[in-house]
Queue: 2 jobs
Job 1
Amino acid sequence: MAKSKKSWEKRLSGEPDKLMVDFVESLSVDKRLYKYDIVGSIAHAQMLAEQKLITKSELKAIREGLIEIGEKIAKGQFKFDKKLEDIHMAIESALISKIGQAGEKLHAGRSRNDQVATDIRLWMRDEIEILQAKITLLQKAFTKLAAKHSSDIMPGYTHLQRAQPIVIAAYLLSFVEQFERDFNRLKNCEALLNTSPLGSGAIAGSTLPIDRKSTARQLGFSDISYNSIDAVSDRDFCAEFIFDCALTATHLARLAEDWILYCSNEFGFVQIDDSFCTSSSMMPQKRNPDVLELIRAKTGSVYGSLMAMLTILKGQPSGYNRDLQEDKVHIFTAADTVEACLDMAQTIVSHTKFNTKKISSALEDGFTDATALAEYLTGKGVAFRRAHGIVGSLVAKCEKQNKKLAELTLKEFKKHSASINKDVYECLGAKNVVSKYVTEGAAGPKQAKKQITYWTNELAQR
Ligand code: ARG
């Protein structure tokens, strides 16, 4: 037997093909799971000792050996050999070299199939916490900026056409809501994935008296899985995790798109700090929002990971298949990309100013008070459809005369509807309109202030 032969491949003859070694290995990707692999192995060894499958001194040697290996990896002193395929074999083989026979006992009642399913779950639990922390920081940045603009008004858009006036705070808080759902989606994802597959073995469990509840307890899982076949082949949680990342990326991309528009000369609503802008190699006047454009674009690679993950799953027969090894590159890409984008977005939100002067200079353009006028008429007993028609004609008239609604005389109003009185002027103009919003959750200053207080308290507790 050749010396370089892997201990678990006595069944095969000869050396593995070199091209195959590179193709099959996942070590280059999954080495970042090393901590979780070690923690999982220590829990497994502890359980083996509890079940008298290894002795106390073997457990001690295994535990100490694994900890040393972990420290070596952390210091960058561990020599990874891709012939060992993955992080599980790399660590086990280092352990055997280090402590000998006790190390050979570690894999009893375990397969790499349940081992990797456990490692990914442990990694994902931590990653979810990191993402949630970053989401919270971003929400805080939005809330802080909103507090500066609780009464400042901007046009609200539908179809990217001026629709109704809103306070800037309400616009900013709309993102706090989106990211709150992202936070909760990750929480749900964590609750679903938090069951231990360890002890499911390769597909059918084990004839050894493995205490699955012991390892689950040690690793902080809320329960164990109850079907070994499903346990080793389930990657639903990976697809779900990437979907959650994809939706967060979507929200970030929509923010980016808004602000790319808002910082253009055409809008001029926001000023992003110079330290987050780039210039042009040719046009000296340029101040480009490249960072936002990259946030928008990076969404594509997260969507790509989601499609890849779903596609990897769809054609597989029951049980573990090596296809599943390809899950990691996609969960890592999704997590890393969204982490970077969240960090960037949070910094940008904290370094952006709303140009309230510029916004208010053109605020009365576009008849954003038309709906409020129709509602004024509705309040006077005019059927809404009729009111809508009356205001439509008034807007057309104003457009011809290049006037705002508020510039019409009472006489002119009366010509269109006898129900219009002097008090009509109290509901015209953006400022009047926002102060008249009464519905819960509306985009007015009263509601925004209430929400700012709510979010400030809520986010401070996280
Ligand atoms: N590297 C593999 C993965 O990530 C580990 C499991 C391999 N199992 C096997 N029987 N070949 O999925």
Job 2
Amino acid sequence: MKHFFFTILLMATAVLPTGAANHEVPLIQNVCAYESVSLNGDWHYIVDVQEEGYYDYRMNPTRWGFFQNAKPQRPEDLIEYDFDKSPTMQIPSDWNTQDERLFFYEGTVWFKKSFQAVPMEDHRMLLYFGAVNYDCRVWVNGKEAGHHVGGFTPFNYDISDLIKEGENVVIVKVDNKRHAEDVPTQIFDWWNYGGITRDVRLVKVTPTYLEDYNLQLAKFDAKAKKRQISFSARLNKKESGHKVTVFIPELKLEQQLTTDAEGTVSGTLFVAPKKLQLWSPENPKLYRVDISLDTSIISDSIGFRTIETRDKQILLNGQPIFLKGISIHNEKPNGGGRANSAEDAHTLLGWAKELGCNFVRLAHYPHHEEMVREAEKMGILVWSEIPVYWTIAWKNLKTYENAQNQLRDMIARDHNRANVIIWSIANETPHSQERDTFLGNLAQYARSLDNTRLISMAMEVTGASNYVNRLNDNMNKYVDVVSFNQYIGWYRDVNDAPKMKWEIPYNKPVIVSEFGGGAKYGYHGAKNQRWTEEFQENLYIENTAMLDKIEGLSGTTPWILKDFRSPRRVLPDVQDYYNRKGLVSDKGEKKKAFYILKQWYEKK
Ligand code: GCB
């Protein structure tokens, strides 16, 4: 057994030039279902301001980088770093809140973790990262496993050929410097938390495994006597003849299929409408689904529902629904820092529930997977988006590819979640021909990956005169739902909300994807005094009344649930590097406006 493993290892070493390998494999579906070892916990780290550990003094990548994890072998050896003598940090986390020296730091930090492995003849090992912000390179035992760009989506490497029996070392170089051609770009209104911000796992898979599978309830057809659930799956290899079975015990539904030459299967399950409980905010019913491949089996919890639009309405399970939403950043409920657990998600979503929400906008990038899964259990619908935000480098092909990859991986991770109903591809982007091409392509790509959900993007009011606000955006043709952000009462037209009228010339549902204003919790005064809770309260009273006049309004996600960290918010004693538009403070205290929105939602 051992012998076999080491043969593979030697072959791999012979063909791969040092440092130039790419072991990345397409994202595995439902990683939590597999046997895995968590690599969370203490990791040693080295802050590397000038990337001494990667480039030589001529700025060429060096063979002697920190990824070697070198140790002096002889007394005279010169090695100017030592992971094991460097401090440790809890992973997952952002470094900004773990080490006070790194609060404002944007640059490179190296991380190191050791783990034990045993040779396995009949299994492969994937190294899975929930997210690393932003640019990261990973080495296993001194060999590069891959390079990943984009701070909010998961990725995995097949490291079976890089590991050895006994102690193994993973080194991760993380760089969160901002650049104009990145996604997001150089400026954005949230904290650029750096680090290995989500879970790391070693996942055991069979050599042939289910790379992806999809279950989806077909749209209701009045003539059909049965409801249809489509099922498809893809192996990681193009191998025919494998048995794939899908089984939903509670519905007594089972189907066995055999893979074709592409390594894929597809089939349909039929169920009597009366038997199937649909997922909805009132009844977030999830069914256990077992999917087996040959002799291995994994389980998921899946809900069934339909989502579509009819003229200006959004229909969930065929019925019109008003989306009572709130925007949320992926930040911890108490203070700043990246949220990274089911507990964090539960607290944040609990506040949303208290507000009366049935919907959340997870802004401005894909959130932690637990956020989506918790929301699904709690009956909360989700808008999920990628960080194509403000001034993207529209003409740069690499920027497009990057955005497209992030979109692909967001959809790959969550396409079996019943509560996700909207993929949003951009936020407040400046109009131009190049932007239209970029976003048009992204929208079409999203639809090609998933034509069962709605596509949107947060647009802006494009013209306002005599208190008439107009929306005119060429991207209208690509979206199912017209969404826009507006800040009447805060950035513009303070006191004029009652006079506002709206012209939205599209026969599509409308979501106001942002509105709001700032208040410092506990600061009280007149309603025209900026930053008081009363100012924010009045803004919510006037804005909600104004929104009631928008024809075809199908939902709203005010900005924002909780005060969040932003380097753009520098006003001393008020902001102190927090955007204060939260309905709850950074410590979770509810402001007066919270209750205005709650009351409005009670009536909706
Ligand atoms: C916006 C952005 C959001 C900002 C918000 C604000 O329009 O979409 O990211 O945080 O305004 O507070 O200005």
